[in-house]
Amino acid sequence: MATLAIEILDTASGRMAEDVQVQVRKIVDGDWQPLEDAQTDAKGTAVLVKKADLKDGGYFEVLVFLGAYFDQSGRDLPQYKMVDIVPLRFGVESASRNITLRMAVTPNSYSADFATEIKRLNLV
Fold first, then answer.
1. pTM score, two decimals?
2. 60 lies in some domain
């Protein structure tokens, strides 16, 4: 069985994004049901969905609270943030391998993709 994880790189600082709050929901019987909330660690990673919630696949929504992360970083940000709460919705088939949702973020942009294998970045 597989897990779904997130890995976030703050490209503006060149570091992994630590302490980013993430909420996860899954459609169950036609309604969005909350799963466990998560927070990224010093490596910018967090497990979002554990094996039992991925075994049958399904549609997921991940809310990534980047505005709050950038607020705590000490950056001078405008009142109305370009990147604040980022919603990502996607479907996952029954997975046999771990899946990583990778994000690269700045206060003004973000990109996201999926990987079944991830190679760690060596940041200095």
1. 0.88
2. yes
CB 103 within 8 Å of CB 7: yes
Amino acid at 43: K
Tell me the pLDDT tens digit for each residue of 80-122. 999 999 999 998 887 677 889 999 999 999 999 998 755 555 5
Average pLDDT, the chain: 89
CA distance 16 to 21: 14
Give the separation between CA 85 and CA 101, rounded to whole angstroms.
16
Element (DSSP H or E) covering residue 74: none
Most confidently predicted of 27-31, 39-43, 51-55: 39-43
C-alpha–C-alpha distance, residues 39 and 89, integer Å = 18
Q: Which amino acid is at 5?
A: A
d(CA 33, CA 53) in angstroms, rounded, equals 11
Residue 59: give its domain's CATH number. 2.60.40.180
Structural domain span for residue 102 = 4-114
Which residues 6+ apart lie within 8 Å of 32 measured at CB?
25, 26, 61
Query: Average pLDDT for residues 62-71, to the nearest whole number?
Result: 96
